[in-house]
Specification:
Blueprint (H helix, E strand, L loop, with lengths): L2 E5 L3 H12 L3 E6 L3 H6 L10 H9 L12 E9 L5 E13 L4 H14 L3 E4 L4 H10 L2 E4 L24 E9 L9 E7 L3 E10 L2 E11 L13 H15 L1 H4 L6 E2 L5 E4 L4 E2 L3 E3 L5 E4 L5 E2 L7 H18 L7 H25 L5 H12 L1 H9 L14 H10 L2
Parallel strand pairs: 1-2, 1-6, 2-5, 3-8, 6-15
Antiparallel strand pairs: 3-4, 7-10, 7-11, 7-12, 8-9, 9-10, 13-16, 14-15
Length: 406
C-alpha cells in the first residue's frame, strides 16, 4: 500500500483517487468544496463524454448514470452560409453512445463513493503551506485543480502553447423544453464562419434530463456578447437571440425553452495552454500536474472531460506499474509524456478548430456530406482524436481518404 495525495476533487482527481482506492492504496484528497456546495453551485462545464472515457469510468465501477442519462447517438455538423442557411449538413452514427452528466450531479456522488471506499477527504483550500505538509505525508502528490492559484505553480510550455490570449468568448446554458431532434439524440455542431460556433446536446442535471446550449464567439465578434448580461434569464434571452440571428433552424427548437435552474448559466474566456508537468515547492519537493492543470484546451471540440478521464487512466496505470520504486521527477515526466502521446492530438485538433479551416479541412467536411464513410470517420474521431491524423494535417492524406471513401 502506498499513500498518494491528490489536490482537487474534479473529474480527473476523483477518478484517479477512486481507482487507487480500488487497487488498495491509501489516498488523501483535498477539496475546497463539500458535496452540498458543489450541488448548489453554478454549473461548471459542458462536458460530453464519448465511449472510451465512459468505459474508463465503468472499469473503475463509477459509471452510476448509464440507465438514467440520455444517450447521445449521433454527431450532426452544419456550416452556416452567409445568408444564414445551411451551406452543408451531415450526421453520422457514433459507434458507442456518448453522454453528459452535470458535474453538480457527478462530483458529489463520486465524493461519497471515495469516502465509502476508505479515502480521506480534507475539505480545505490548498496553499503552499498545505502542499508542503501533504508532500511530507505522501509518496506522491498529484495536482488536479486546473483553474486556481495552484495551477500557476506549473510553468507554461511555450513550445506546446501557440495562443497567449483567449480565442473564444464562451457561454452555456442548461435548459429544458428544447424541441427534440427528430431521429435520435445528437451533438449538433454548427460552424458560423467568421463568427463562432454553437453546439447543443442532451445531458442529465440535478432536476433530470436536459439539454446544454454552448456558444463560442470569436473574440471581438458579434457572439462576444455576454459581458453586459445581468441575470440568468437575460443570459438565455441573449443566447436565443444569437440563434435567431445566425442559426435560425436551431432557434426554432427554442420556442418552449427555459433554464433548468437559476445556476444553470456560465460565461467566461481563457487562453488554451499546455504547462510543464512538474512544479517544485520551496522545500524542493516536486508535484505532478494532471488533466486541465497541464493541458487546458478550449471546449470547442468537447474534449475536456474526456481528457480528464484518459489522463486519470494513464496516471493510474503508471502508478500501479511503479510498484516499489520512487515517484521521482524522471518518473513524473515520463508519466505525463505517456498521457501526452494521446493529448497532443487533442490539443492540435482543438487549436486548429479555433482558426479558419484550411481548404483540405473544408474538403473533408464537404466530403462527409456526400460520403457516409467520411461522416462516420469524422464523428467517431471525437472519441479518439488520434483518428483525425494525418488527414486533418496533411492535404494529401485528406485527399486519399476522400478518394477511398464510399
Amino acid at each position: 500500500m502506498r499513500r498518494i495525495g491528490i489536490v482537487g476533487a474534479g473529474h480527473a482527481g476523483l477518478q484517479l483517487g477512486l481507482g487507487l482506492l480500488q487497487a488498495g492504496h491509501e489516498v488523501i484528497l483535498l477539496s475546497n468544496q463539500r458535496p452540498e456546495q458543489i450541488r448548489d453551485a453554478r454549473v461548471t462545464s459542458s462536458q460530453c463524454m464519448f465511449a472510451t472515457a465512459i468505459a474508463h469510468e465503468r472499469a473503475s465501477g463509477i459509471d452510476f448514470w448509464a440507465g438514467e442519462c440520455p444517450p447521445i447517438e449521433e454527431v450532426q455538423l452544419a456550416i452556416v452560409a452567409p445568408d444564414n442557411t445551411r451551406a452543408l449538413q451531415w450526421s453520422a452514427r457514433l459507434d458507442g453512445a456518448a453522454m453528459s452528466v452535470d458535474q453538480r450531479v457527478k462530483m458529489p456522488r463520486w465524493l461519497s463513493e471515495f469516502e465509502r471506499r476508505g479515502g480521506e477527504v480534507r475539505f480545505q483550500s490548498a496553499d503552499i503551506t498545505m502542499l508542503e505538509a501533504l508532500s511530507r505525508e505522501c509518496e506522491l502528490v498529484v495536482v488536479a485543480a486546473g483553474k486556481g492559484e495552484i495551477a500557476g505553480l506549473f510553468e507554461r510550455d511555450a513550445a506546446r502553447s501557440p495562443f497567449t490570449k483567449p480565442m473564444r468568448a464562451l457561454a452555456l446554458a442548461y435548459v429544458q423544453g428544447l424541441e427534440p431532434r427528430a431521429r435520435c439524440a445528437a451533438v449538433c455542431f454548427n460552424i458560423i464562419p467568421g463568427v463562432g460556433e454553437y453546439f447543443v446536446f442532451p445531458a442529465l442535471t440535478t432536476s433530470g434530463p436536459c439539454e446544454i446550449m454552448v456558444f463560442e464567439g470569436i473574440v471581438g465578434g458579434p457572439v462576444d456578447c455576454w459581458s453586459d448580461v445581468r441575470s440568468p434569464e437575460q443570459h438565455l434571452e441573449v443566447g436565443c437571440g444569437v440563434l435567431k440571428q445566425f442559426v435560425p433552424w436551431e432557434h426554432e427548437r427554442t420556442r418552449q425553452v427555459s433554464l433548468t435552474d437559476a445556476s444553470a448559466v456560465l460565461a467566461g474566456r481563457f487562453a488554451p495552454v499546455v504547462r510543464k508537468p512538474l512544479a517544485r515547492l520551496p522545500s524542493g519537493r516536486t508535484l505532478l500536474g494532471m488533466a486541465d492543470v497541464v493541458c487546458l484546451n478550449d471546449p470547442i471540440t468537447g474534449q475536456g472531460s474526456n481528457n480528464a478521464s484518459k489522463c486519470a487512466t494513464v496516471y493510474l496505470q503508471e502508478i500501479l506499474a511503479n510498484d516499489g520504486r520512487p515517484f521521482d521527477p524522471q518518473w513524473m515526466t515520463a508519466t505525463f509524456e505517456k498521457y501526452w502521446e494521446n493529448a497532443r492530438y487533442v490539443t492540435e485538433w482543438t487549436n486548429s478548430m479555433l482558426l479558419p479551416p484550411p481548404p483540405h479541412v473544408m474538403g473533408l467536411l464537404a466530403a462527409a456530406a456526400a460520403k457516409p464513410s467520411v461522416a462516420r470517420w469524422f464523428a467517431n474521431a471525437f472519441d479518439d482524436p488520434r483518428r483525425f491524423y494525418p488527414p486533418f494535417a496533411d492535404p494529401a492524406a485528406a485527399q486519399r481518404l476522400i478518394e477511398s471513401a464510399v
